[in-house]
Design brief:
The protein is of the alpha+beta class. It has helices at 5-15, 25-28, 38-43, 54-57, 59-65, 72-80, 93-107, 111-120, 174-185, 192-199, 263-278; strands spanning 145-146, 154-155, 202-203, 213-214, 219-222, 228-236, 239-245, 252-258. Helix 1 packs parallel to helix 7 (93-107). The model has no long low-confidence stretch (mean pLDDT 95).
């Protein structure tokens, strides 16, 4: 599901009573010597950057490093050696990697175990899993394809997702994602005060959609006829998913495609999501 994983991670973080959103990240992760808060991580206002992952950027890198395992500490260290983003709102997977690390520091259990016990099992999401360092998608599944800017698509289904812990490593289905987002906005996963924090949004022009805003693991996007809906887009090499849900959780729409995504594809996905949550389809 790629970055739809971020909503799952944000939910687990918001379920933890010990985690205060305005606490500095270095309280939990002393290695992060920057004045950023947990809220900054979840809202993408930390100005952190992402290290380059060769398997995601070229066919040669994919062939050489598709099975490579990363540790969260390795990725965090690489990210913290980089500079800062110039914009106050800047999307970065590093934010959710650090959130996953904080979840582990607080609970003493792995991010994957917390996701499984707090969300996947209670909602009976049978097709959803946290694969850890496994490079395989279990059960029947669509294959992912990427061309890396060439005219020759490459089968990229085999990939170690450890570079995306917290930010994009989960596997799911359109059915499970619909159940999850309906449950979340329907108030089944968070108490009202925490859900209100999650859905309080700030401008997020970096998403490339006019009027887009971002909360804590959720984007808020405008509907063409007025109003808005909550959403997240996800991508992890060859796989793309987009979920939308109304503010009360009564309507959801999930679109999933494989291969390279063009402007035309994005437009079609957007129309399906808007029609689904807007009640026109």
């Amino acid at each position: 599901m790629g970055s739809l994983t971020k909503t799952f991670t944000a939910v687990v973080a918001l379920q933890l009573a010990d985690l205060k959103l305005d606490t500095l990240v270095r309280y939990w992760l002393p290695e992060v010597a920057r004045d950023i808060t947990v809220r900054d991580l979840l809202r993408h206002t930390s100005r952190l950057l992402d290290p380059q992952i060769p398997a995601l950027t070229s066919a040669e890198g994919y062939q050489a490093e598709r099975l490579r395992s990363y540790t969260p500490e390795e990725l965090a260290g690489a990210a913290l050696r980089l500079g800062t983003a110039p914009e106050s709102w800047s999307y970065a997977n590093t934010n959710y990697l650090l959130t996953a690390m904080i979840i582990e520091r607080i609970t003493g259990r792995s991010w994957a175990a917390e996701i499984t016990d707090r969300i996947i099992r209670p909602l009976d999401l049978d097709a959803t899993s946290a694969p850890g360092e496994s490079s395989f998608v279990p059960g029947p599944h669509a294959r992912g394809w990427a061309s890396f800017g060439t005219e020759t698509p490459l089968d990229v289904t085999l990939l170690n997702p450890s570079m995306a812990v917290g930010s994009g490593a989960l596997i799911s289905s359109v059915r499970d994602l619909g159940v999850f987002y309906a449950a979340l906005l329907g108030g089944e996963l968070l108490p009202p005060a925490r859900l209100a924090e999650m859905t309080a949004t700030v401008p997020a022009s970096g998403l490339g959609i006019e009027g887009a805003r971002y909360g804590l693991g959720l984007a808020e996007l405008p509907l063409p006829g007025g109003g808005s809906f909550f959403s997240h887009f996800g991508e992890l090499l060859g796989y793309h998913a987009w979920a939308g849900v109304t503010a009360d959780g009564s309507r959801t729409a999930v679109v999933y495609v494989t291969g390279d995504v063009t402007g035309t594809t994005m437009g079609a996905m957007s129309a399906l999501i808007e029609g689904g949550v807007g009640g026109t389809r």
